[in-house]
Amino acid sequence: MENALELIIIFDGSGRVRHGNKAAKDELAYGEELKGVHISEIFPNAFSDEEGIHAAVNLQGELLHLMAYRKNRTCFSTDVRILPDTKFPDCYICFVRDVNSREFLEKELAEVEKKAAHANTVKSEFVANITHELRTPVNGILGNVQELLRRESESGKLRMLKMIERSCRDMNGIINNILDFSKLEAGKFTLEFRQFVFRSMIDYVKANHISKITEKGLDFFVTVSPEIPECVVGDELRIVQILNNLLSNACKFTSLGKISLEAVKTAQVGRRAELFFMVSDTGIGIDKGDQDKLFKSFSQVDASISRRFGGTGLGLNICKQLVELMGGNISVESEKNKGTIFSFSIWVELPGEEAEEPALEQHISPFLLKAQSLAETRQEEPDKAGEFGTPQNKQEIDKRMSMLILSVEMENWEKAEMFVDVIKQLTENAPKEVKSGVLKLKMAVQKENYEKITTSQDALIKLLELYFQTEYCYGYVR
Known about the structure:
The protein is an alpha+beta fold. The protein contains 14 helices and 15 strands.
């Protein structure tokens, strides 16, 4: 009671104040003299010397709007509520809230909110303008580099030009993400609905990713339910953007196994249909405690993610907002080191001839049940590829080592580094000398030192052959 922000006054049946908390003593300027003051001195418009208890009884429980008077007879507006004191039946508790202070704080809050909204608008407009300005020089560099790539034949210069080209493309991706994010935050993002061929869109998405996924030695499966009509009406560009982001993440965080994209129609209401998509992988997975961070802006599961794999942490946040703009929702189910499933639903319009079904019809595809749990996948025979020393592990190392050798011979250092990273993951549980050999090979690849790569590679192959007790390993005959 003493620490309460509102004024609390306890008075008896005769109207005399028995006690007042610190706020009452300070605000009414009586200090310790408040005790014994008649309640009519504080609220002359509601009480008098003659009334006292009768007024309190009649008014108890109601919210009263009264003027409270200080000792120096200045006054202020208050909201007052009087309740009986359950401990002392002859007493009443008077709760007083200063309306002037509240109104002042509400005005202050409204002003702060107005300034914050204006600042956010200015920030969003600035970000949108600066990203547009950044895009021009980046595209200028990219265009000139692509022209030089057609003219240049020297391998060393080509390697540097390809690195610049890759950096420009990455920069464009970051700029696009920031631009989309600023538009979404400012409420200026609009969807463009038009009719498109659904399976052609899926084929386009597949073509964008199949090369990078299969180059990593991963399997890639795409399934489209026959229940989805040939044409739908929606924002094709933004659906592609969501799928591209989810598949890029799946490829980035998966070194072994497979990636799959599946689509099915789950419901139809008149001319509107709900489409359900699922992107699953067998990658590094995510701890349950970290999954709530995924859809927040500028957020990664941990700092090492951005160091190892890059990214701004905006992609999934943008996906979430785009999905919600299309009337759906997005979710994730994952387990550390056992893979991840991202699933989302959106609503699209159907052309006139497609909208002949009943008002509400549910379609459930067998693979849709996988979105509810990873249990089916985990009940299958466990994948031993990541367990060093197993036949599956040897086969995967052999495959990646062959790809690494080919990439080095072709001086494709980007792919070489990718394959050596996979080999590093495949040998995480290997003996110390094997892990050390992989690390030396990785360092040599990063430095693009052909001689050191050859030396490190031969040393690692000997260690692996010794461990696996075989004379035939990675295309080499000993």
